[in-house]
Amino acid sequence: MKTNLRKNQVPNTKEAQKYSAIIHRESNCRFLSRQLKKCIFGILLLPVLFIMTARAQSKGHIPLIYCTDLFHPHEDPDDHLDLATVFSMAEFDVKAILLDQGKKQEKGPGSVPVKQIMTLTGKKIPFAIGLGSPLKSETDTGEDQDIHYQGAVNLFLKTLEQSSKPVQVIVVGSLRDIVAAFNRNPDLIKSKVAMFHINAGRAALAGDEWNVHLDPKAYKRMLESGLPISLYPCVPLNNINSSHWLLKHYSDVFETAPLVLQNFFIYALSVVDTTEINPQEALKMNLRPWRRLIWGREKDMWSLASFINAAGRKIFKYENEWKALPTTSGEQNEDIFTMVPARIEVDQKGFTTKLDYESSNPNVLTIVQKNQEEYPLAMTSCLKFIYQDFQVNVEKTESKCKSRKIAK
Hints:
Distance between the termini: 65 Å
Mean pLDDT: 86
CATH architecture of the largest domain: Alpha-Beta Complex
CATH superfamily of the largest domain: Ribonucleoside hydrolase-like
Largest sheet: 9 strands, mixed
């Protein structure tokens, strides 16, 4: 507001009172305006802060112990894909990694890809190799095996003891170390494990399955333990009662992943000798030209449903694509698969002798594909988007993976 006073002019009394009143009103108006702006800004910011807080809370809030028959060179490269999946899902707070089959780990150390993933993510996760030989009986503790192979069982028990809340356990391999730990301290495991997600078994009578074959006594003991089990049978292939699906081309899930994660996959699938190319150095290289030898291959896959379930995600369809996302209020998820109670029993060889989906005395929750035609399409789409979410630790990798022209 303008006044008739010139600079340095002293007003008379009436003019001074009038001038003072004007200044006071202007000051009050400016103050109220500032306060109103702050209030409006605060109101507008609240939803943003709420969303940011919710996202922050959703990250790493599920403690997880991951048990895997991961090797390098690989026996089956799906184990490398599974490892990358675990570290691409922000919900998981990975507490420990158990490397199955200790004797074989010495010849093909799964520590190679584990260390690569930790380099890419900047995370430091304790890991250890497991028992070297199958359990001799269903109650075997494995304590008579060489001390060199006790690491995984000890790490499993120690991690549970130190956890402040129940842990999710995902198994993609044998149940040897888990069952040995249970035989040593059943009360601890009953109180500290929220759910065992087991990728093993056969959803049909008779016949064998690889992960069960690795230690049939451990598998039988697990099914009879009374522990909370979500089971994802690996066979029969292309069956609604198994978790199996076919990835038609690696490119369908790799092509849009971060470049350093593509390097991880290329190195693993090319079965590179670590003495020829250092696995850590490989992450810094431009391995994209090698993709032409790999991207067109198909791959049998199994474990993704267990990761989605353990993370508490649901599958949503958006036009012709599916995404596995945290449950969002108001959206209708797709019933691609579900978990149903069942009773499954096996003999001493691990062969399925009973498979009852209507039992009044179930011992597992087991997967059932709700839409067999869409299941592989949905799994492929979900995995693609999960890999896109892989968080690269920029501080550790930026200097190693500088911008460069990518071969097309």
